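Much of our argument rests on the idea that a fold can be written as discrete symbols. Part of our work consisted of pairing the sequence of a single chain with a tokenised description of its backbone. The amino acid sequence and the backbone structure tokens for this protein are reproduced below.
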Amino acid sequence: MSAESSPAAKDGVVRVTARDLPVFCPNKAMTLWSSHPRVFLDVADSGAAMCPYCGTRYELEGGALPGAH
């Protein structure tokens, strides 16, 4: 499910695919009132990352990408 087209994160987790890279927060599905500065999150390396502002966790379906650095 895409971070940009999915409904709000369920349980604070947004699942993304390799097609969604680069991942950023806040994503387009988040409401304007809960907005914070945009940050890009590296999910390719470890398979997951957490937004330092709102705590939303982004998980890459299938885990880390081979050859990511």
Q: What stands out?
A: DSSP finds no helices and five strands in the chain.
